[in-house]
What does this fold into?
Amino acid sequence: MRVVSSAGPLIHLARAGYFDLPRILFRRVLVPPGVYEAVVVRGRGQDGATETAEAGWIVRRRPRRGELVTALGAFLGRGEAEAIALAAQREGTLLLMDEAQGRRVAARLGVEVKGTLGLLLDGCRAGHVPDLEAAIGRMRDRGSWVGDDLVSAVLAAAKQVGPGR
It folds into this structure.
């Protein structure tokens, strides 16, 4: 499966202690230049910057549809616009994105979207995240905002799976 990531999941997964989870689940992740710049260049010294710069499984790729990036850039950040455009280039691509407006736009374009908590839940179900609650707690402790209702729903979904919460 082809996977494209925006900045948020890279940062939040680093905070959770599971930065390598996309590599484990998908082998390779594409990021557009705007995402790389936001995480590595402008985010230098912040969570996810060094991990992203050093991850051989993260591949930088420029979206081909510049007109779509320009149109989306009217109401989204550069990284989100480029990530959506890159994901929309090929059917069946999964977009990793947390930003609500970007998720809605991507869905309207027919792009499948998954957020950080969805990835952590998948990792939990696959046995790669043994304590989902602790991972979410680390994210929150390091500055990631996640609504209580969403956390409760994700933890409830994990309990339906059994051990590995």
Observations:
- The chain has one domain: 1-165.
- Strands lie at 3-5, 29-31, 58-60, 94-96, 112-114.
- The longest helix spans residues 148-161.
- The domain at 1-165 is CATH 3.40.50.1010 (Rossmann fold).
